[in-house]
Amino acid sequence: MFPNVDWQIMMEQTWETLYMTLVAGVATFVIGLALGLVLYITNESLLLKNRPIYVFVSAIVNVFRSIPFIILIILLIPFTLFLLGTMLGSTAALPALIIGAAPFYARMVELALREVDRGVIEAAESMGATKWQIIYKVLIPEALPALVSGITVTIVAIVGYTAMAGVVGGGGLGNLAYLEGFQRSQNDVTFVATVLILLIVFVIQFIGDRLVTKIDKRSA
């Protein structure tokens, strides 16, 4: 049915896509959560408001969030070569994937934290909670459904980024679809790679939606 498809290579590239998505997703969650927290607490009078820090971090987030991913990959080639010694392969795509996705998630974290009722924060403060206790015992738990929903959307975006990274030698299904499918006019290879990418996206979205439903107190 798909005469040009080498299923062993297809599975290898699928695992490369999953590897890039998992590693970049975890790193994006950690870095994006940290940046989002900094953005929120430095702009919140009840916590650690510091306008200069907020403006500085916000500017960095806005710059990297605004650069189209394919251009970001090219801009980061010298950094990737310095860090890893190569710009080819799935591991070499990770710096661009993380730097491209973390600022995006940071803004989603900031928005999620802003949705937390200020009355809850004020109540915790009145009971003697420190600022750091408010952050990890009140803010994060209250915003957790939105944080999980946000990282789900971000990881789905990362899957798309891996496909673009494949065009410049990043490995994975995007690389296979471009080199073996598009350049050699093997449409069945491109089709199968696309279907596998869609399956990965659907599974990620399903897991994310189930987690949000499970932890959202409003859906209980």
Q: Explain this structure to me?
A:
With 220 residues, the chain is mostly helical. It is 80% helix and 0% strand. It contains 9 helices and no strands. The chain has helices spanning 7-41, 51-66, 69-75, 77-84, 90-114, 118-126, 131-167, 172-182, 187-215. α1 runs antiparallel to α2, α6 packs antiparallel against α7 (131-167) and α7 packs parallel to α8. The chain starts with 6 loop residues before the first helix and ends in a 5-residue tail after the last helix.
Task: Give structural attributes.
mainly alpha
Q: How does the SSE layout of this entry go?
A:
Elements (H helix, E strand, L loop, with lengths): L6 H35 L9 H16 L2 H7 L1 H8 L5 H25 L3 H9 L4 H37 L4 H11 L4 H29 L5
Helix pairs in contact: 1-2, 1-5, 1-7, 1-8, 1-9, 2-5, 5-7, 6-7, 7-8, 7-9, 8-9
Q: Strand portion, in percent?
A: under 5%
Average residue pLDDT: 89
The count of helical stretches stands at 9
Biggest sheet character: none
The amount of helix comes to over 70%
Instruction: Spell the H/E element sequence.
Output: HHHHHHHHH
Poorly predicted runs are: none
The N- and C-terminal alpha carbons lie at a distance of: 47 Å
| Backbone CA Rg | 20 Å
User: Tally of extended strands?
Assistant: 0
Shape: elongated
Structural class: mainly alpha
Quick structural overview:
The chain has 220 residues and is mostly helical. It contains nine helices and no strands.
